[in-house]
Amino acid sequence: MVWLRTAAAYIAVVAIALTINFALPRLAPGDPLSFLLPEDVLAEMTEAEERRVLAEFGLDRPIPVQFADYAAGVFTGDLGVSLRYGAPVMDVVMDRLPWTLLLMGWALALSSLLGTALGVMAARRRGEVRDVGTTVLVLALGSAPVFWVAMLLITLFSARLGWLPSFGAVPLMARPGSWEYVAGIAERLVLPVTALTIAQTAGVWLTARSAMAVALARDYVTVARAKGVPERAVFWRHALRNAMLPIYTNVTIGLGSLLGGALVVETVFSWPGIGQLVVAGVEARDYNLLQGVFLVATLSVVAANLLADLTYPLIDPRVRR
Amino acid sequence: MTDLALPAPTERQAPRGLRPVQRAGLALLLGLVALVAVGPLLLPHAAGETVCPGFAKPSLAHPLGCNDVGQDLLAGILTGGRISLAVGLITAAVATAIATVLAIAAAWHGGLWDVIAMRVVDAVMALPFLPLVIVLSAFFGASFTVQIAVLCLVLWTQPVRELRAQAQALRAADYTDAARAMGASSWHVCTRHILPELAPLVVPQFVRIAHAAILTESALSFLGLGDPIAKSWGTILFHANARTAFLTDAWLWWVLPPGLLIAASVVALALVGHGVGDRHADGTTAATPRTGPARARATGDRLEVAGLSVAYGGVPALADVSLGVAAGSTVGLIGESGSGKSTLAMAALRLMPPAAEIRAGGVWLRETDIAGLPEGALRAFRGRRIALVPQAAMAALNPVHTIGAQIAEAARVHGLADPHGRARALMAEVDLPAARLSAYPHELSGGQRQRVAIAMALAAEPEVLIADEPTTGLDVLVQKAILDLLARLSAARGLTVLFVTHDLPMIARRAGRLAVLQNGQLVETGTPKALAQGARHAHTRALFASVLALDAPKRWVREDAGAPVLEAQDLVVTYRAGLAGRLRGAVPVEALAGVTLEVRAGEVVGLVGGSGSGKTTLARAALGLVAPSEGSVVVSGAAPRPGGAAAMVFQDPYQSIRPAMSVGAAVTEPLVVARRPDAEIAEAVGAALVRMRLPSDAGFRARRVGSLSGGQRQRLAIARALVARPRLLLADEPTSMLDQSLRMDLLATLEDVRAADGPGILFITHDLALARHFCDRIAVLEAGRIVEAGPADQIAVAPAHPYTRALLAAASS
């Protein structure tokens, strides 16, 4: 039963994403064709030609048929053609996705570790003056727009100090697969990952701090102390072990916002991920491409949530079957 | 009932007014709003005017220089703030309003609508936020209103989820039930009770949405999806990025200021919202410090508390308490709420909240003063020499570890051999199967958990046990089993026990000596017999006088009763799950399985039964809150309906009246719901308060219910129930949450009202002694059936049914 409900929930998410994608060109103000063809082409077309194009795209058929057709297309990997790149959207997006995932993976790992470690430490000192200062600092870091932080990082570390590159993901001069190539990628990862980590850590820190404070105030912690359990074990085995549950959940909920952050950071660093596609898509009014990015992003987040759902019982015995 | 250290439970809520951090945030936010509202008016140039050469550096005329097309950047940034802040605040207002209405509607209707609404919310929340906003904005075009609409479309979900959870809790609150029992409409309950309670929780949601909206708007604009004419801070950064301003000196005046202003606005909102609802209990510190002089031991007792004074945050909670527990004996420590009895128990282990300090005195275990031990030695003492049996109601077991691991841990941390073997042996001693060692706490019942807690306390073979209300919250029969177990094990091991409780009749039968605490002072000690017969202190005498003994002459004897006011005939109530519940596999539950019962006017009928026996369902059926599945129920000659001839007094006065209401509004609510004329309502208030012996002056009527004591609140609850002159009063354990010394007064007042007005009373209780004295007849309910009924004296003294006999045994051992 639980399995069925979980599956239904995920199917619902994907269905809603599909419906949004399907409905947008049909509901948005203006001619649906204007979302499919470049403006100059559209301007020169006769009415007969327009009807022919509509028929070609299947837009003259009943809506349910169109939807079934669209959904079938999506499931066979057909997301239409990108006007901007002149290639199937699926190919364009899949080309870029690994670069975005690389960026996100590092930022996720670093922000989770850093945020948890620092937040848990802070929970011990809740209420002290220094704690208020740290909290305000963390809130401030988390409030800065991530792309702005990225720009300032470039100003400082690339433009002023010249320590790190700020453009692209791969060194142009190195042979793919060579040592220099990998080192070059690593070098180019530093600033975007830093920007994303700064933005993401604040949320994890706040969650970790509050989860740990809640756990430390629980009765089982008092009882553990009454048993004579050493403070270190009280902290790790009793409090932190419980605090990990909300931290884990919140980190997975934060995946969507991490992805959003990655998209904007990529545009600052000209990182060849799907964020760049977004900017290109907005500039060229390439709606197919934007919809493809949205759908792939949804599927990625759903997959990550599914993974988190499946692994959560490993850390919380209460939801084990 | 004076509280020395801790405020009454419901008063322990967030302090009114803003905290300094929040105040700073609000000031920053207002400052920013003022800046962008007034700033552009003071500048000579408008944001869109070309007034200087492109890329001009800062000068006196243009303090932040100019952008690529020669527009003054300062003007642009100040004007842009209007867009950024307006988008954020308008979005927050609209989305919060939508979310509040939806949350209340979903929580109120429940069932399938609720399920569907929450599934949609979940699904929308799982969509990647920014890509969704980007796609929507791209299709609908870039403009101010589109941005707000798109942001609202995405941001309403999370507040719905959180507010609905709160609204559900409010819907399930006793005061909501009370209002429904009065016949209040959904509209009345939602607007008069749920919305006012929800309102403070809406504020943080507003703040959070504004926070997210400002950041998202800036990201959207930065990606080129902003309004190209009305440039926001994000749009300005988009242009700066497009012209790679961050690679030149222009970063200082073109990139830095708009970003700083976005961050300042967002951080201001974060500060305003920070820590709202973030009030946890403090927990305990590893070792509560002793800040004053020690005290030598004076007796040869195994455990001796010597001149102990404890303060919470400077307020005294225990004053110079001296108490000895002889080796192998049990001392019962009794006192009413706030008397300091739990403080004393926990001070013996030096396990108290951070604000607590031991001001003076010692806690001697043989030759060691626990109050003076360094932390390391204290740790070696705890569990090994002196152990704690915590409250059953406490979440005393760690939910993520098996009970086997937790019992074994208590032995292992003290270096005892074979901890797992010990755990196995202890399981047998507390009558739990060894197979349960690998179970997690959530898989056990309350009674089983309490057995585990006892096993844990015994794992390192201590010589002293501190039992802190170890059976509170358990069913009567389970309580007896736990108490018997504890007595058996401590006798077998020759343990020295300090037993903290508020249950005087129980401990008087089980402890060798009693110690009475009042207001942090030990007023008297002695054997139960000596105290019962000739206590010196007035408080002790009052406590013993308020105990209703099973074998004493019946205290309330009444004349013949009048016409029937409650007639239940073969009443069956079956709870069927809604469609959503059935999908989850819920099965119908037969809460009442054919109950026949009569209550006459002026008569008090006791309804006795354990938890889950159907007592509450019978009351709900009489109120018309649940419909009979079979059989019939008639109240005062008519079918029951909310607001009809029956009224209810709930068990917990802290829950049954909304604390934010005024006394006057609370007591007249049934009349307001019934739309009686204002003059009648005004007249009724005073009479209702006077009858329950409460003050009836204007000052008292205007007081918040939350500021009243527990005893006053229960009187108020009864006054409210009686204000519409019901023919049938349903009283659900009205005295069980009150301190012992207040119970008799309340019963006496209730009896006066009964004698004057003559309503029939259905008195729900699990206390056989109380039922025998206060009720004329008793009906015993078990698993939805009445297993025994008859005159109170007969049922309570010579019960026939095994369940009633077990209850009697529990009440007299």
Quick synopsis:
Chain A has 321 residues and is mostly helical.
Radius of gyration of chain A: 24 Å
Q: What is the string of helix and strand elements of chain A?
A: HHHHEEHHHHHHHHH
* Structural class by helix and strand composition of chain A: mainly alpha
Question: Over the alpha carbons, how many angstroms does the gyration radius of chain B reach?
Answer: 33 Å
What is the overall shape of chain B? Answer: globular
N-C termini distance of chain B: 28 Å
The largest β sheet of chain B comes out as: 6 strands, mixed
Please list the strands of the largest sheet of chain B in the order they lie side by side.
Answer: 6-7-8-3-9-10
Give me the number of helical elements of chain A. 13
Question: Globular, elongated, flat, extended or rod-shaped: what is the shape of chain A?
Answer: globular
Task: Specify the number of helices of chain B.
Answer: 30
Regions of chain A with pLDDT < 50 over 5+ consecutive residues? none
Helix-strand layout with pairing:
The complex is a heterodimer of chains A (321) and B (813).
Chain A: H1 2-27, H2 39-44, H3 47-56, H4 63-75, E1 81-82, E2 87-88, H5 89-124, H6 129-143, H7 146-160, H8 179-216, H9 219-227, H10 231-253, H11 255-269, H12 274-283, H13 287-315
Antiparallel strand pairs in A: 1-2
Helix pairs in contact in A: 1-13, 5-8, 5-11, 5-13, 6-8, 7-8, 7-11, 8-10, 8-11, 9-10, 10-13, 11-12, 12-13
Chain B: H1 20-42, H2 73-109, H3 111-126, H4 129-140, H5 144-155, H6 157-171, H7 174-181, H8 186-225, H9 233-242, H10 251-273, E1 303-312, E2 315-325, E3 330-334, H11 341-349, E4 356-365, E5 368-369, H12 375-381, E6 386-389, H13 403-412, H14 419-429, H15 446-458, E7 464-468, H16 476-493, E8 496-501, H17 504-510, E9 513-518, E10 521-526, H18 528-534, H19 538-545, E11 564-575, H20 579-583, E12 589-600, E13 604-608, H21 615-623, E14 630-635, E15 646-649, H22 653-656, H23 663-673, H24 678-691, H25 698-702, H26 710-722, E16 728-732, H27 740-757, E17 760-765, H28 768-774, E18 777-782, E19 785-791, H29 792-797, H30 802-811
Parallel strand pairs in B: 3-8, 3-9, 6-7, 7-8, 13-17, 13-18, 15-16, 16-17
Antiparallel strand pairs in B: 1-2, 1-4, 4-5, 9-10, 11-12, 11-14, 18-19
Helix pairs in contact in B: 1-2, 1-10, 2-3, 2-5, 2-6, 2-8, 2-9, 2-10, 3-6, 4-5, 4-8, 5-8, 6-8, 7-8, 8-9, 8-10, 9-10, 13-14, 13-15, 14-15, 15-16, 16-30, 23-24, 23-26, 26-27
